[in-house]
Specification:
single chain; 659 residues; 6-stranded mixed β-sheet; 7% helix
């Protein structure tokens, strides 16, 4: 980081800050307890950041000042398979292994990282003014944020091949093959470049209504403008009667805010507020509409050519003989295209693309992915927030605090199939569907009002002997319709529990932690005055993440499989999503730090020791987190898994030097 300040004149100052950061870690893509990945299936996740910020501060009079800020942020995000992108993903499903249950083994490059590159630039202009009257302090201004996105995300460009057992793997009998690409067979041609401008105007007034009551009131208006639209798909237009090239151009929100602070007495303060806030900018979900439109990229599957995807689910026109015969990837007549130049002699599956699938993509035909589109009636998500809090200092200097927060979400984002209509109801009450239009996923709004309550209380005290402590408790009750846990539309659709996949029903939120207790205690002592010692403990205990009992509804009960993809995500009649809470988790962390003099008078130095999960260091059975894996939909009787990273102790030590 580089920071420069220039006092241009007595009342004008120019500041410039440059920041660079580059970090990485290695991540598992398929990391459930019943999945095993060879090292080449891991991927490096990192991002290079360059940030430039210039700000001019000016005092024009004793009452009027301004701030002008220009900034530019560049993010180059990378997700790179450890084994490179020259070999596709191989998944071998080992069913019912003795003493192990079902295990999926992954080889090759992860299917979602075979062509994955995100770059975006954010340019910002801020014009801000502040004017102090005798009583009122006004803040007002305009902001412009310009986002430009390059988003390459094409799954299966080197294929994903699944095998049902080790024998089928050995014999080349695929359970399913997936291949996606641009018709040119160059994934970069499927990467959309798009963006928008987010405009904001605002005004805020701070004033004292009485000697004890302070008010902050403001009004803000945000609106989007863009000239970038997704490529239009003519088949979609013909089926739906409107285009898939909808955008957020012109969408806006008027956001009022009001807050207060009331000093009831010298010992008691009450605070609160009400305001409307944006529910978040769904950039990653909007980006899907620009890339997944079956114009820039196409997808196909092996079932079209008898690389079996279940005989009862073959693509129309597929002829596998009578009786049906599954084709092997090792058959002599299988021709592979785009085989990597450095592949072994005679290499085929994984190194290249079966010619039939290759030709499908070149022609823009096959089992294409669902088109992603923005509902023409889409409204920006928003949340009303109501807050009320109190702080009271008791005579012995014990500080008590209590806070209540109520959130009311409106027009929350969700994903639904756009192509299916209900055609009946089965005897158990499940709806039956049929796909009657071009297959699609719609980014749309829930008609429900999602509510969340949070109540927190705490007590803190500092003693003259250097000891202090805090204790706290928080209760949460939050609900949503769709947890929207993924950047991909079909994953948002399927990675949840439901009775009806098209339902708009409120349930306990995936993110809700109902109870949380915390405490901290710290002791500070100066050794020989120049060597300050700090010892600290931090403890927490919280109830578990909610989860659902569900079953695999791929083949039934809906009559049509709206991309449920062999998941345990269908609820039994009468059961609700996330109606079960997971196990409690308790742990204590420890930190010790000792300071000592630096080389120069104003320098500071210290050594420190941190033990994360001290409880687990003391006893292997303590501090262990048990919970169900994502997406926390499980069949009844499935035990919770021990989460490795959270359940292990970690010891860190180091030296800090400041000047």
């Amino acid at each position: 980081m580089l920071k420069l300040d220039w006092n241009i004149a007595e009342d004008h100052r120019l500041a410039f800050t440059y920041m660079y950061n580059d970090g990485e870690n290695f991540t598992e893509s398929d990391d459930a307890q019943n999945e095993f990945e060879f090292s080449n299936h891991l991927y490096e996740r990192g991002a290079e950041l360059n940030s430039y910020v210039g700000t001019l501060y000016s005092d024009w009079t004793d009452n009027f000042s301004t701030e002008v800020r220009l900034s530019y942020l560049e993010i180059d995000n990378r997700q790179i398979s450890v084994g490179g992108t020259d070999f596709g993903e191989i998944r071998v499903e080992l069913n019912g292994r003795p003493g192990m249950g079902d295990v999926d083994v992954y080889l090759g490059g992860d299917d979602s990282r075979q062509s994955n590159k995100l770059k975006y630039d954010v340019s910002t202009i801020v014009l801000k003014g502040m004017y102090d009257f005798d009583v009122h302090s006004l803040t007002f201004g305009y902001e412009l944020e310009t986002l430009e996105v390059f988003n390459l995300f094409v799954q299966h460009t080197e294929t994903e091949i699944r095998f049902d057992g080790i024998d089928d793997f050995r014999n080349g009998l695929a359970k399913a093959i997936y291949y996606n690409n641009a018709p040119s067979q160059n994934p970069a041609d499927a990467a959309p470049v798009w963006g928008y401008d987010l405009n904001t105007v605002y005004i805020q007034d701070e004033f004292d209504l009485t000697d004890r009551l302070s008010i902050v009131a403001g009004l803000r208006y945000d609106w989007f403008t863009t000239s970038d639209a997704p490529a239009e798909n003519s088949d979609f237009l013909a089926d739906y009667g409107f285009s898939n090239n909808q955008t957020v151009d012109g969408e806006g929100l008027l956001l009022p805010r009001l807050g207060f602070t009331f000093d009831m007495s010298d010992a008691t303060t009450i605070r609160g507020g009400i305001g409307l806030y944006s529910g978040g900018n769904p950039n990653v979900w909007l980006s899907n509409n620009y890339s997944a439109n079956n114009v820039l990229q196409f997808g196909t599957r092996g079932r079209r050519w008898c690389y079996i995807d279940r005989f009862d689910r073959l693509a129309p026109g597929a002829d596998c003989g009578t009786p049906e015969v599954q084709r092997s990837l090792f058959d002599a007549d299988v021709v592979y295209e785009d085989v990597e130049a450095d592949a072994p002699s005679g290499a085929g599956a994984g190194y290249g693309i079966p010619s039939e699938l290759h030709a499908d993509i070149a022609a823009g035909t096959g089992d294409n992915n669902e088109i992603n589109y923005l509902d023409p009636a889409f409204d920006l998500p928003k949340e009303w927030k109501f807050a009320l809090g109190l702080t009271h200092v008791f005579p012995a200097e014990y500080v008590f605090s209590a806070d209540f927060l109520y959130t009311r979400g409106e027009d929350m984002a969700m994903v639904l199939h756009g192509d299916i209509d209900q055609i009946g109801t089965n005897p158990d009450g499940y709806p039956e569907y049929d796909s009657v239009r071009e297959p699609s996923f719609a980014l749309t709004n829930s008609n429900q009002t999602a509510e969340a309550y949070s109540i927190s209380v705490g007590l803190a005290k500092s003693f003259e002997n250097g000891f202090d402590f805090t204790v706290g408790y928080t209760f949460n009750d939050a609900e949503d319709v769709n947890p929207m846990t993924s950047s991909v539309a079909f994953s948002n659709y399927q990675e949840r529990a439901f009775f009806d996949p098209q339902e708009d029903v409120l349930s306990t939120s995936n993110y809700n932690i109902e109870h949380r207790f915390t405490f901290t205690t710290t002791w500070r002592h100066d050794i020989a005055q120049r060597f300050p010692l700090t010892l600290a403990l931090f403890g927490q205990a919280n109830s578990g993440r909610p989860y659902s009992f569900a079953f695999n509804g791929t083949a039934s009960p809906y009559g049509f499989t709206p991309f449920l993809d062999d998941r345990d995500n269908v609820l039994e009649p009468g059961e609700a999503r996330n109606f079960v809470n997971g196990s409690w988790w308790r742990k204590i962390d420890f930190r010790a730090e000792m300071g000592f003099p630096g080389i120069a008078e104003n320098h500071r130095a210290s050594v420190f020791l941190v033990i994360d999960n001290l409880t687990n260091l003391l006893n292997d059975d303590w501090g262990v987190l048990y919970q169900h894996n994502f997406p926390r939909t499980v069949t009844k009787g499935t035990p919770e898994s021990r989460i490795g990273d959270a359940s292990r102790y970690e010891i860190r030590f180091g030296v800090k030097y400041g000047f």
